[in-house]
Amino acid sequence: MGLYLRPTTLEVALDALHARALTIVAGGTDFYPARVGQPLTDDVLDIQGIAGLRGIQERAIDFRIGATTTWTDILDSALPPLFDGLKLAAREVGGAQIQNAGTICGNICNASPAADGVPALLALDASVELCSAAGVEIVPLAEFVLGNRRIRRLPHQLVTAVIVPKPAGRAAGHFMKLGARRYLVISIVMAAATIEVDRSGGIAEARVAVGACSPVARRLPALEADLRGTKVDGRIGRVVDAAHLGVLAPIDDVRGSAEYRVDAALVVVRRLLDELGSLL
Ligand SMILES: Cc1cc2nc3c(=O)[nH]c(=O)nc-3n(C[C@H](O)[C@H](O)[C@H](O)COP(=O)(O)OP(=O)(O)OC[C@H]3O[C@@H](n4cnc5c(N)ncnc54)[C@H](O)[C@@H]3O)c2cc1C
Q: Model's pTM, two decimal places?
């Protein structure tokens, strides 16, 4: 077994990352299953003991979700309807044991195309906070996840939080996942949306993201543009047409063919928006 470090302060963790190559471990629910049957040779930086990295803080213009905040912490937090989509995604990440151990930052850093947290956070316009001994960098999530298992993180940087901006007006989020069965399943398609409503009940801002249909979950900018200005109701899903999904590039795999994924994504996005529209 390699080195196992479990610092209690961020400063010690960042100094350790600066000094040598270390594999970061949070909840370990992606890290350990990827190494089943193999000796653990990595030099590990376990970040779970670091004070102040866990929990959600509401600040003047945003919410800051610390790196060791688990899916269960998100479910147990009193958060505005903006976060309803993220909470629904949290409920869909494995079972209760996985939700108790797994972190939201671990989910985005693992960068699986099927990571349920990524579309939910893209729909929240989230950014990633990276810290190193040299300072802090804030990177939009869309620029942070580069591809399948690829993220924009330098070896000496630690992801310390995800940051969600506060919307200008009334807003709510939603999330929907399609798998081969109802629970405990890897997504075939998942979609998330946030809608901000103006005073007259029109859509001021819409963000819609689809996961598991491209190497990285993608926002649907053409759909978002067509939704803007539409009166919000339980039938806004009718705005969606196949051309809006043109940015997706699904693959065939054991869970579904590329063709099926595109058809399913169309249905999921329409239903997601209808349900969200009826809630607002
Ligand atoms: C049975 C089972 C079911 C699952 N079901 C789902 C599911 O339905 N949907 C889903 O999306 N996922 C699922 N997962 C995957 C996993 O639980 C989640 O991705 C979880 O959020 C990972 O968080 P973690 O803290 O355990 O990450 P870890 O395993 O600790 O880390 C994951 C990766 O991120 C890196 N990392 C972690 N934290 C940081 C940080 N702060 N800074 C830099 N790098 C970091 C690690 O180096 C590692 O590469 C499942 C896993 C299991 C075992």
A: 0.97
